[in-house]
Amino acid sequence: MTGRIGDEIMIIPRASHGPVREGEIREVRNEPGGVVYRVHWSDTRQESLLPHGPDVVIKHRRGGGAEQTMVEQTPWLSRLRHPLERRHTRDAEQRHQAAYDRLAERVEEIITGLGLIEDDFSISAGRIYHIPRVVSVHPGPPLAVDMHILPGQSPEDFSARATSIAYDLGMAEVRVVPLGASEIRLELLPHDPHTGQSPRKSVRK
Questions:
Q1: What CATH architecture does domain 100-189 belong to?
Q2: What is the pTM of this model?
Q3: Buried/exposed code over 107-137 (b: 16+ C-beta within 10 A; e: otherwise)
């Protein structure tokens, strides 16, 4: 069963360690060798040509937004469908975790660049820098990071630099929320895609 323009398409590799790829069919070509799709891939945001084959799964779109999954009913696919779905979910979770890790590293880099660190010196170890650490990332909304701040620091120290943190992260605003004596939450508020304006500023205490 071949796909149509607008259908979702998935490639399920025969090798168990291969990644599952998903995309949307933008064009269907009837070539001499068979049907070929022009696919916009969700992972790379790029397009490429893909011939129809046994590794292809098509999800047809029905009118009114409802969807029905229709796949090539090959025995190996029927047997592997549920394990592959679990693996696909696991791969997505791993991608999300990697993105959260990159965000945590970026926030710590920005905090360091803004001078929100402390240092001391000893003869045996030399100069040692102490940096506030991201302890967790919350997907939100809003997207947020929890940080363990250093002794002597206060939420106001970070609020005073919230505009710079937001700018470096490409966000409209960063809200600093105190969580305790040594922990804060940075809520990362994106630009409004409809108005292009920043959300209304507020300070929580």
A1: 2-Layer Sandwich (3.30)
A2: 0.54
A3: bbebbeeeebeeeeeeeeeeeeeeebebeeb
